[in-house]
Write a structure and sequence with these properties.
single chain; about 450 residues; alpha+beta; Alpha-Beta Plaits; 4 domains; eight-stranded mixed sheet; 17 strands
Length: about 450
């Protein structure tokens, strides 16, 4: 009931009570007059006494009514007790944010039934988005619920109110942003940096698998299928064209995609395709202990020629430690390593503009791989350690739980750089290869935007 309707009801209630009290006073006066006539009394004495008695009773009634009007409502009535027993009381208790999605019938009253079921558990609906379907509607809620309410209880309550295929996951303060504002923010991130597209899609869609498949393998064999310009939407799968000629595939087995989500993803991918490859222009200038200045910046596909020249200046031993395979194949990996589709790359330049080091952050499922290559003449100067520190910080900002490096036990420089992070490390030997895993500290107040990207290049290597 609204405040206006409550006020109107209160006014009607007071009007009825006033009429009843006036009628009671008239009845009392008539009764007193009749009693005086029957007893044969005349004169003003008895009517005056009756009037005094009527006024005394009226005053007592008014005082009693006002005292009970201001009294708190009773707590032991049947209706109130049953309402309190319907779910935990959220007042004064910690709450949890949830994102919930459920499918309801497209008919009047279906949404009201859901809201009533959630209200019974003291759940506050902060926002609602609707995704129309041909045979129903998908309602997506942002909920604030008492911490005492379990996810299973919410799911059962929604199912009992007519919801089907209900999906629930934890949310945080970043989800409080309304849908248009969120889309504008994701579009801005995508426009500024090509590498942000997978992160934006992961934040938009939740937990999903994103596969970026290049057009051809390292050996020249075609890999990516021809995706229509408008894209492909299936129940748990979406496909789009990649500007490099490959394809972008998004899968979410636990939750079907809706046409609304497909339209949003297509808008972001079309924006990315129209803008082409782009890297933020930020450049940080550092001074090495011996006094030389170096510049650290983001690298992209345009740095491929400079990276090949650096390969030519590196020894075979350095290339072997980095790529774990034939040195002659090293140049073939650069197209994938420098593509923002598969991660982020930092480049180190000298004051003359020569590229002398590369650091790669490669998306690999729930984990993230880091790899370093420093030209022989510039090793043992702290460049690798600085690159690794920055890459791990970028992984933490992206919400990655762990970062691992694949190297050899003889690569003492990489081992020392990993130990220099000051993070807990796990060491594992796999077929003569050393895998060092670090777990970066999470960034405070940062939404988890970890994306799952698989890279297939036809050779099994990254």
């Amino acid at each position: 009931m609204t405040e206006a309707s409550s006020a109107n009801s209160s006014r009607r209630h007071h009007w009825r009570r006033g009429v009843i009290e006036l009628a009671a006073l008239c009845t009392t006066a008539a009764a007193a007059d009749a009693l005086a006539d029957s007893l044969g009394f005349s004169g003003p004495a008895l009517p005056c006494a009756a009037a005094v008695a009527v006024l005394a009773v009226a005053g007592f009634h008014i005082r009693w009514s006002r005292r009970h009007e201001n009294a708190p409502p009773p707590t032991d009535t049947g209706a109130t007790a049953s309402s309190s027993a319907a779910g935990p009381d959220a007042r004064g208790h910690e709450t949890t944010l949830w994102r919930m999605r459920t499918t309801v019938r497209d008919e009047p009253g279906s949404l009201a039934a859901l809201c009533t079921a959630l209200a019974a558990w003291r759940v506050d609906i902060l926002s609602l988005q609707t995704h129309p379907l041909s045979d129903g509607t998908v309602d997506e809620f942002l909920l604030r619920a008492p911490t005492t309410v379990q996810p299973e209880e919410l799911t059962r309550a929604v199912s009992g109110a007519g919801g089907a295929r209900t999906w629930l996951e934890r949310a945080d303060a970043h989800d409080l942003v309304d849908a248009p504002t969120r889309m504008l923010g994701l579009a801005t991130r995508t426009a500024l940096d090509s590498a942000e597209l997978p992160l934006a899609l992961r934040q938009l869609l939740g937990r999903c698998t994103i596969r970026s498949v290049p057009a051809r393998s390292l050996s020249g064999q075609p890999l990516a299928e021809q995706v229509p310009v408008e894209g492909v939407l299936e129940e748990h799968l979406m496909k789009f064209r990649d500007p490099s000629g490959g394809s972008l595939t998004i899968e979410r087995p636990q939750l079907p995609f809706t046409p609304t989500e497909f339209a949003r993803v297509r808008a972001l991918t079309e924006l990315d395709n129209r803008l082409g490859q782009r890297v933020p222009p930020r450049r940080d200038v550092l001074t090495l202990p011996e006094g030389n200045e170096i510049t650290i910046r983001r690298a992209g596909p345009s740095d491929q020629a400079a990276a090949r020249e650096m390969h030519d200046r590196c020894s075979s031993g350095t290339l072997d430690l980095r790529y774990h395979g034939p040195v002659s194949d090293a140049d073939r990996y650069l197209g994938h390593l420098l593509s923002p589709r598969f991660g982020r790359t930092l480049a180190v330049e000298t004051a003359s503009g020569r590229l002398v080091a590369l650091g790669h952050l490669l998306w690999d499922g729930d984990e993230t791989e880091v790899a370093l290559l420093v030209e022989d003449a510039w090793q043992q100067r702290g460049i690798g350690a600085e690159l690794l520190r920055r890459l791990v910080a970028m992984a933490a900002e992206a919400g990655c739980d762990s970062v691992y490096a694949v190297t050899q036990a003889s690569n003492t420089g990489m081992v020392a750089a990993m130990r220099g992070l000051g993070l807990p490390l796990d060491y594992q030997i796999e077929e003569g290869t050393l895998v060092i895993t670090a777990r970066p500290a999470p960034v405070p107040a940062r939404r988890e935007v970890r994306e799952i990207i698989r890279v297939r290049d036809g050779s099994g290597r990254r």
